[in-house]
């Protein structure tokens, strides 16, 4: 006889379902055993027949019982031990991101630098003016309005004459790289700058691609490194982390290399080009390319915020056609609401004003940081390099030291810092100083920590 006690916290059918299910799992109700009829069980438990019926139907749907015509319901055949749960600890993933009081490797953007009031105003405009559009599915490449705004911006400020149909929007460059691998093919031999963007190396590894390191000299990628590669990744306007700006002569050499074979391509990451501190940015490789061998990539994570996960790439026409033919089944990974807001931000001139304001602000911050550094006791121990290289500069330590001991000592004092070695290079004495989110007070404290650590090495 089935005897259960009910309460008022859950629907009766749900409680009855749970009781019978538990009895089956614990072997109290054995395989093949017939259950009471709906009417008799309802009478026995003083509940309605419909309550029993709903509980039985749920058990039937989940396979715990089965029904025989004109016979009734029976317990399905199960091994009791299959339901036994082993004691387990709470599932917690290890947090690989350690937190430091000062992080000189962070690319984050300070909240004070984001145009919250303008963004909020434009968001309201989008919600008022584009309610129907926001509910429609968008093209694989992204919304038309944002691609048109980006095309206009590239034409006016980077001298790139491109169509909106060449532009692909994605949530971060990592996603776009994955699309490019599928577009260009896993049979290609890819070349990556060393030192360089380590995440890109991880992406290529995840696809089991053949990857060759492209070593740099003072002008960028060495032409001698290009042997046996067919697709190269480069950051000519502002290489990270070395800060090298590739001269025009070397850019033309890369284009000549690409033009030698039909399926050679250059992926040009125009990283941080908006924040060149001295002189005008050099023309992108894409603007110099006459044979459709260059793919242009950029992102709004540096110019707006590291949490605005909106990036884009510009494909040469024949690759845009190939993308449309073979990869248009993908859905765009950026919400249409964010795309419309960003499009307004660009079209109404706010983006240009924001870049100009931030360039002046970052230039002042860089000058203040360099002044703090040159006036500190640390200055005789270091050499400043590439101070005009966007939102970071290099700090070369003059004295010999134990790298592991140095890094460990900095971490112990709450300072996170990276060297060129952390980006695949051999140089472990050159520190990369990112200052986009750094306050002057924090940098002053970082100087003190660095000086104290170096004195004791």
TrEMBL record:
Cross-referenced PROSITE patterns: HTH_GNTR
InterPro entries xrefs: Aminotransferase_I/II_large, HTH_trans_reg/aminotransferase, PyrdxlP-dep_Trfase, PyrdxlP-dep_Trfase_major, Tscrpt_reg_HTH_GntR, WH-like_DNA-bd_sf, WH_DNA-bd_sf
Q: What is the lineage of its organism?
A: Bacteria, Bacillati, Bacillota, Erysipelotrichia, Erysipelotrichales
From the Swiss-Prot or TrEMBL record, give the protein name. Answer: Aminotransferase
One of its Pfam families is: GntR
Q: Which Gene3D superfamilies does the UniProt entry name for this protein?
A: Type I PLP-dependent aspartate aminotransferase-like (Major domain), Winged helix-like DNA-binding domain superfamily/Winged helix DNA-binding domain
Q: Which UniProt keywords apply?
A: Aminotransferase, DNA-binding, Pyridoxal phosphate, Transcription, Transcription regulation, Transferase
Q: Which family does it belong to?
A: In the C-terminal section; belongs to the class-I pyridoxal-phosphate-dependent aminotransferase family.
The organism is Kandleria vitulina DSM 20405
Per UniProt, residues of the HTH gntR-type domain are: 10-78
Q: Does the keyword Transcription regulation apply?
A: yes
The UniProt GO MF terms for this protein read: DNA binding; DNA-binding transcription factor activity; pyridoxal phosphate binding; transaminase activity
